Amino acid sequence: MKENKWIIVVCGVLRRNNQHLIVQRRSDDEISAGFWEFPSGKVKFGEKVEDALRREIKEETGYDISNDSRQMIGISEYVIEEAAENRHTVQLNYLVDLSVMPQIKLSEEHVNFAWIEAGDDHLDEFLMAILKEINHDRI
Fold it and tell me: Cys-Cys with 73: which of 14, 20, 89, 133 at CB 3.0–4.6 Å?
């Protein structure tokens, strides 16, 4: 019988001068090979959401958001069904307004990054939905 798992993820939409940072997963990634995404990751058991957000952004971009303003902008949900398990992920999306343009140092999970605007070609339907939360459907 397949195992069902719930996963909580935090997602940081880093914004500077109306551009948003996205990162690209490695081509050999097990789940989302080559996908572009906002910096995000799982909340560890017992970890506060704000701490997880700071940790994940630091791990994936090398940037510490401690001095930047942030606000929760919405929730995304998705289910991934595989042979061994089903994963229902609840993603808490945060907008992080950057006080400075950061130097990005990618983690080993990612191979590239880009600063994008709402109409950029890198955006898929999932990323666009998150940006719409920021812009209140003006995209």
Answer: 133
* Nearest residue to 38 (alpha-carbon basis) of 98, 114, 105: 114
Q: Give dist(CA 107, CA 74) in Å, integer.
A: 25
pLDDT tens-digit map of 6-30:
999 999 999 999 899 999 999 887 7
Question: What's the one-letter identity of residue 139?
Answer: I
Helix (H, G, I), strand (E, B) or coil at 116: strand
3-state secondary structure of 54: helix
- Specify the pTM: 0.87
Amino acid present at 21:
L
| Cα 102 off chain centre by | 17
* Torsion angles phi and psi, residue 92, rounded to 5: -95, 115
User: Which of these, 136, 131, 129, 102, lies nearest to 117 by C-alpha position?
Assistant: 131
